[in-house]
Amino acid sequence: MTTSVAEPGDVLSVRNLRIAFYTRGQVLRAVDGVEFSIRRASTVGLVGETGCGKSTVALSLVRLVPSPGRIEGGGAILFRGRDLLSLSERQMTEVRGKSIGVVFQESANTLDPVQKIGHQLCEAVRAHESISRRGAIGRASEMLAAVGIGAIRQRLDAYPHELSGGMRQRVGIALALICRPALLLADEPTTALDVTVQAQIVELLKNLRDDLSLSMLLISHDIAVISELADELLVMYAGKIVERGETSTVLQYPKHPYTQALLRAIPTPATIVRQEPLVPIDGTVPSADAWPEGCRFAPRCSYVHAQCLALEPPLIGDRDHAAACWLLQPNANGGASIERRSRPRADT
């Protein structure tokens, strides 16, 4: 059974992260006890259905959870050994952008439409560094070149609406990296882009990670993107991490029923070539104000038994590969293992 996931070489270590949204008469516990870490110059992928809490996790790492949400006490977000939850807002302003860069979901649309690209890039670097206007323009030019944008002088003088979607996405990445942060949070960086541009952005992120020794948290629905970029993979469901491990291992040998179902529902090059039908997951992600008792995937799981409905399973395994499923426990259900599951779903 796993306990701590932190190691001395980790750039980021998240411990017992809990985030709740307090609305009228309701408490929505969107993130509930999430733990993971990211090593230096490595990429961790985070996958799961919409509504599982992935983007909320990313926003919490830079303390930008929107109101009425708040990060609950008892946890820690350790960045280079420093707990970000203990910092003042002024101290966090210094961390955002300078030490941790963020590519927001559909970041192309977050660019200021009335400010030229050059101005936005220069302001981002001058907010954190004592640098001349000429030096900032030079840095902006270097960053645009690094993300594969040509005709740099023309682009610096352009407004966001004068660029294509793929070009704006590159500018969003340049904006996140212009202060040379140690950690990049990339939330769906290839969303709404055509296949060719997606491939270019994936290759760009891969090269930037290697060239700049970046650590990265990559959130994506696209398993192909995750498999290309992520060294480790986290699978999130209903506010919790239900499986984690080396990306290739998790994709080839998924342990949790949710991970297995997720992979069956997503097209891959192999399934496309074999023309295999996709299998949708029954039901929907439960509401954050009414998580089920026991295993949160139990109401949708084909292999549920009494223990699943009564007790919440911990992550079972080690940092290399672990999953939160009672059937991985040697003595659970008479020694049943994940490979032997064949029972129909019980009434819930």
Task: Please describe what this structure looks like.
The protein is α/β, with parallel strands linked by helices and 348 residues long. It has twelve helices and 13 strands. The strands form two sheets. Strands 7-8-9-3-10-11-13-12 form an eight-stranded mixed beta sheet, sandwiched between helices. Strands 1, 2, 4, 5 and 6 form a five-stranded antiparallel beta sheet that branches. A hairpin with a 2-residue loop joins β5 and β6. The two termini are 27 Å apart.
Characteristics of this structure?
eight-stranded mixed β-sheet; 348 residues; 30% helix; five-stranded antiparallel β-sheet; alpha/beta; disordered C terminus
The SSE order reads EEEHEEEHEHHHHEHEHEEHHHHEE
How much of the sequence is in beta strands? 15-25%
Tally of DSSP β-strands: 13
| Mean pLDDT figure | 87
**Total helical segments:** 12
Output the strand order for the largest sheet: 7-8-9-3-10-11-13-12
Assembly state: single chain
**What percentage of residues falls in helices of 4 or more residues?**
25-40%
Q: How is the biggest beta sheet arranged?
A: 8 strands, mixed
Gyration radius, to the nearest Å? Answer: 21 Å
Span of the ends, CA to CA = 27 Å
State the shape. Answer: globular
**Which residues sit in consecutive blocks of at least 5 with pLDDT less than 50?**
333-348
Indicate the structural class: alpha/beta
Topology:
Layout: E1 10-23, E2 26-39, E3 43-47, H1 54-61, E4 69-71, E5 76-79, E6 82-83, H2 89-95, E7 100-103, H3 117-126, H4 133-146, H5 152-156, H6 165-177, E8 183-187, H7 195-212, E9 215-219, H8 223-229, E10 232-237, E11 240-246, H9 247-252, H10 257-264, H11 269-273, H12 306-310, E12 316-318, E13 321-323
Parallel strand pairs: 3-9, 3-10, 7-8, 8-9
Antiparallel strand pairs: 1-2, 1-4, 1-5, 5-6, 10-11, 11-13, 12-13
Helix pairs in contact: 3-4, 4-6
